[in-house]
Amino acid sequence: MTPELTALALAGLLHIVQFVVASYMANVDLGPGYTTSPRDRAPSREPRKITARMLRAYDNHVQMFPFFAAGVGIIAITQQSSLITVLAAWVYLGARILYVPAYALGWQPWRSYIWILALLCCAVLFIAALV
Q1: Which residues span the membrane (predicted)?
Q2: How many other CB atoms sit within 10 Å of the CB of residue 14?
Q3: Which of 116, 89, 114 is nearest to 104 (CA)?
């Protein structure tokens, strides 16, 4: 397995961990009556601020992960792995790991900078695939 694919597999595990943690926190805050329902109504109580942040951090990874997976996939399929693509993949993973506490703890403006770094890593993968 290429280093980029290893980073992708670890990013997938990060995605699962984020989902489990955010879901658990939501279940504690909102109760299983709401979280197991079809959610046709708003919850009867608000989640804690940190729970809401963890849910948003997970949602953000839902949006970002396909870009990373596509970039790594293209690099792997075309066998264009290089030092640049390896670094981009691992920096992406590090940024996404760091993004979770940055969002949960409200690190301003660092959370946004970390997000931009991860996005730039995705862009590097696509650019590397084109050259």
Answers
A1: 112-130
A2: 17
A3: 114
Residues 8 and 74: their CA atoms lie apart, in Å, by 12
CA 11 to chain centre: 7
Structure tokens at 79: 């066998």
| 3-39+47-130: CATH number | 1.20.120.550
128: Cα separation from own chain's centroid: 22
Buried-state track 17-33, b at ≥16 Cβ within 10 A, e below 16: ebeebbeebbeebbeee
3-state secondary structure of 126: helix
Assessment of whether the complete model's pTM goes beyond 0.90: yes
The whole-angstrom separation of Cα 90 and Cα 123 is 14
pLDDT tens digits, 56-80: 999 999 999 999 999 999 999 999 9
